[in-house]
Inverse folding.
């Protein structure tokens, strides 16, 4: 049987990831125990006109829908699919925020709006503006740290082995705290070196970093550690 998988992403993301991984590993046992809760923040579109909306998470889609049908540029294929399903016009999709910055660099004369969460990395708006694409930014959702319930913790700590993906440095830090005292075998799969460096929890048997920081590569890396 595959090693149980602990998914700690926000619930919508966690459920989607679990479904996709079960397509790769049908007998997979999954524990969903988010360490972040997403809460929308009040948002008003800018009074000045913009040409593009940039989103790196599905949690920014609701805000993007209020931007007068402007085309969106997405980070991640899953975010792009969700945006298209919601009725947005997806102009381009990039696998990472760095790829988005590189892909849009030099588009002088245009104006963009980056919609993101309270906790973000990459300085997308600043880097694009310096590269010639004037970019505003708005915070449209918060990522609230979540402690596990007693029932969640009992179930997790009862497992002798766990595969645990790390999708952001912040979630890695919170998860490190939630897993203090866990005595089982951990196999960590980090989407980036920054996530690996953020880990301060129990010593893992193995920790690997995905070859590329994108969703599809991460899924393959997770699947490879389940047996």
């Amino acid at each position: 049987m595959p090693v149980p998988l602990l998914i700690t992403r926000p619930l919508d993301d966690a459920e989607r990831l679990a479904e996709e991984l079960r397509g790769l590993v049908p007998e997979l046992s999954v524990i969903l125990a988010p360490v972040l809760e997403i809460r929308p923040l009040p948002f008003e579109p800018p009074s000045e006109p913009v040409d593009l909306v940039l989103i790196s998470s599905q949690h920014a889609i609701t805000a993007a829908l209020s931007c007068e049908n402007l085309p969106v540029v997405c980070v991640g294929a899953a975010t792009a699919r969700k945006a298209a399903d919601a009725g947005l016009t997806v102009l381009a999709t990039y696998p990472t925020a760095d790829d988005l910055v590189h892909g849009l660099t030099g588009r002088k004369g245009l104006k963009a709006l980056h919609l993101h969460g309270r906790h973000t990395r990459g300085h997308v708006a600043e880097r694009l503006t310096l590269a010639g694409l004037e970019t505003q930014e708005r915070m449209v959702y918060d990522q609230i740290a979540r402690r596990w319930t007693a029932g969640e913790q009992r179930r997790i700590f009862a497992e002798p082995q766990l595969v645990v993906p790390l999708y952001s440095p912040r979630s890695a830090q919170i998860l490190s705290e939630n897993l203090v005292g866990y005595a089982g075998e951990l196999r960590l799969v980090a989407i980036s070196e920054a996530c690996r460096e953020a880990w301060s929890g129990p010593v893992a048997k193995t920790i690997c970093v995905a070859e590329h920081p994108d969703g599809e590569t991460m899924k393959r890396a997770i699947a490879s550690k389940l047996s």
Remarks:
- DSSP finds nine helices and eleven strands in the chain.
- The chain has a mean pLDDT of 94.
